[in-house]
Hints:
By secondary structure, the protein is mainly alpha-helical. The chain contains four helices and no strands. The chain has helices at 2-33, 42-51, 53-75, 79-119. The radius of gyration is 18 Å and the shape is elongated.
Amino acid sequence: MILRSYFIFLILEFIFLIMNILDACTTYLVVTNSSLRSEKNPLARFFFKKLGLLKGILLLKSCSILLIIFMFICYKLIKSDINLILIIANFVYLIIVLNNYHSYRKIKKRMEINQFSINS
């Protein structure tokens, strides 16, 4: 039972890592194809303005990696609760990534329409 719980924890941690990578990639696509105003997170927008987009993303995602390490430490203390937290965090990141992807598709479509109207 303990081994199964730990295996679930590792899978959730892996999903959390993948979601952070996808968030970084989709955020980069959205902001580079529009503006910083496209970023809804005020803390992220602040770091993007101060450090630049790429450095800001790297800083914020480095914090996420530290959070993953912290969760490994916490797992030994509060096994079941950390899995629930990861499930919720992964769900939230899934919504964020899907929203970023949807925003990127809208921006790309708008750019194609503008390009078509310029060429016509």
